[in-house]
């Protein structure tokens, strides 16, 4: 599942991350209000700690390509999906809140939580996002790090690393990752779509 994503010299090389401790839930809520209805900066909260991340262009590019490839797979395999971007997920009683890079609900049923959340780790933060998602009840989380996607599925009270997606059975992650480093998003989509069609016809 190794990708060959190349960092263009003109793009920022890191995300800007600010960390605060001793932050009340009310203060966290105020930060969300101040930020408004935008996808960035993304704000995470874990038991009094807040992390505010302004993603770099590279970070946004990677997460967007992964998302478009997931959507291409769903369209090619007739899987019903809804995309919710950086949906603010929070639970006051558990003192947790997070905003994924991308997230999806599959099927037509309404859902309180996404079935799949995608996280791009371009610059390492301090908060354990998996611990946040665990208590929020997100069924599956994909972590992209250094060219690799590692899926985690929620089983009982903990996440387990897995080699394949449970919410998108049949998806070949190694095949998907081959198209992350295409020069443009449109080339990535076309290449992945053609590969899926060849795989199905073969």
- Annotation field: number of helices: 5
What's the count of strands?
11
Spans of at least 5 consecutive residues whose pLDDT stays below 50 are 1-11
What proportion of the residues is helical, as a percent range?
A: 25-40%
Radius of gyration: 17 Å
Beta-strand residue fraction: 25-35%
Order of H and E elements: EHEEHEEEEEHEEEHH
Structural class: alpha+beta
Give a quick account of the main beta sheet: strands, pairing sense, barrel closure: 6 strands, mixed
Please give the order of strands in the largest beta sheet: 4-7-8-9-10-11
Mean pLDDT, nearest integer? 91
The general outline is globular
N- to C-terminal separation?
22 Å
Quick overview of this protein structure:
With 202 residues, the chain is an alpha+beta fold.
Please give the structural blueprint.
Elements: E1 16-20, H1 25-35, E2 42-46, E3 49-54, H2 57-76, E4 81-83, E5 89-91, E6 96-98, E7 102-106, E8 116-121, H3 129-136, E9 140-145, E10 148-155, E11 158-161, H4 173-177, H5 185-201
Please provide a written account of the structure.
By secondary structure, the protein is α+β, with helices and mostly antiparallel strands. It is 30% helix and 27% strand. The protein is built from five helices and eleven strands. The protein has helices at 25-35, 57-76, 129-136, 173-177, 185-201, and strands at 16-20, 42-46, 49-54, 81-83, 89-91, 96-98, 102-106, 116-121, 140-145, 148-155, 158-161. The chain has a six-stranded mixed beta sheet. α2 runs parallel beside α5 (185-201). It is globular and about 55 Å long. The chain starts with 15 loop residues before the first strand and ends with a helix. Mean pLDDT is 91; it is low at 1-11.
